[in-house]
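Hello forum,

I keep getting stuck at the same step: I have a sequence, I want structure tokens, and every attempt I make locally crashes halfway through. Rather than fight my setup again tonight, could one of you with a working pipeline run this one for me? It's a single chain of 527 residues.
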Amino acid sequence: MKAIWTWESGLARHHLRVGARRILGVWHAPATDASPGFGHSCRVGHAMRAGRRRRFAGLWRRVWPGGTFGRAQGNAEWFHRQSPAVTAPLQRHRWNAHTITFLALFLGFGVQPAVSQGTPGAGVEPGEGLRVYVMTMGPGEFIWERFGHNAIRVRDEARGTDIAYNYGMFSFEQEDFVLRFIRGNMDYWMEGFDTGLTANAYISTGRAVWMQELNLTPAERLELQQFLEWNSLPENRFYRYDYYLDNCSTRVRDAIDRVLGGQIREQTAELPSGQTFRDHTRMLTADDPLVYAGLMAGLGEPVDREISVWEEMFLPMQVREHFQSLTIAGPGGERVPLVLAEETIYRGDSPIDESLPPARIPFYLAAGVVIGGLLWVSGASVRRQKAARVAFTVVGTAWAVIAGTLGVVLLGLWLFTDHVTSYRNENLFFLSPLLVPLIGLIPAAAGRGIRARPLAFQLSVAVAAISLLGLVLKLLPALDQWNGEMIALALPINLGLVLGLWRIRTERDDVVDRAFGGLLTVVDDRG
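Reply #2:
Ran it on my machine without issues. Output:
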């Protein structure tokens, strides 16, 4: 079994390969002399609306021996499979041969009749028959689709090809994949695919698709095509991936900026965006509370500086937005728009909300106070009420497991990996690795483990003291990480834990004193 993933600005969408190859929703089995290969054109969606699963008739592409997938080369034949092909959860559309035909025609908007590129001697400028587009796919429903995706489309009328170059590919079969993923040393690659099939893969899941034709000269179009073809060669296609600084979207931006002589960078590198990397992450994950909380805990101080418009284009949607307002030097030196025309291929099933969500500090604070208060109150009744003992043990141990494990992970990301976005994470003040020993000490302290109580109490005091120190240090300008939500949640719980363990310890001493005091009274009476 082989697995191939496509990465969309920091979040992965996996495709499994079983004796065949699936790329961007297209299955392709290599053809043999004995039996031709087949490629299924519809992406098997991950989503399922209203719990329904639908069967759909597939569009099959038959590639004869010697044919090349995704190119207008070889002897390729299209036909429609009449019987249902597979069972797959779709969103709301059925994409069949008629849809593909419409899509293929629609994708040719704004294209002049085919003109041979010819040669300079023939009076036709090289690159005249090329059209270049930025292809932007909007965010999807699932976490790996939240940040959107993009590609560079090159339509070559002379060759009869229409290729979308995608910089978001990686494979599980890479050497030491798991170890490299943990360390943050992931290698991704670029590859070109048929534009119609690529667009259909996203439309079939309800995601928006836009095409922006770039206002490049024939020479610039030709240079970009040659660069992309060179970049897609096996020896040139790989690059070291970075979530924010070097991803599939920044590669699209950089390739276009390269043929423009740095004009995009010149206009945007010093222009403030008014946002941070964390702001954009919050915008795009706000409707998923668990993912939101995990990312806010795991991202450190490096993502909280204001970024430039150039850096903001790590997001495909920002590339599309900023490209609309940029200008470049025209053939005569005049300023002309970078985008010649934009077309909405599909608007998507849901609106895209890119507004900054309100801080959730009140909600996190309320949760922290309730949990911390429960630990304090239940700790006071551990020796008298079984329900209190169970509540303190379960809640306290659960917090130690969650917060302690997160603390170990955050510390490891900082010290032992190349995940630079997790460096200098101030959440370590509140999600302390010192909570890990309390996973075993809390149940013992709440039960009959008399010797465990002093150590559990001392560790909880250390955790609470570090949390209070972290709160005080937030007054310093050097500690400017945006982590108010984590403070609001963790600090009350850490304080409640130390108060609960203190009540358990002092209550036990009172019980012992009363017991021995009563025994001495009996002895005195008998004497």
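The chain has two domains: 97-109+127-346, 361-523. If your local run keeps crashing, start a new thread with the error log.
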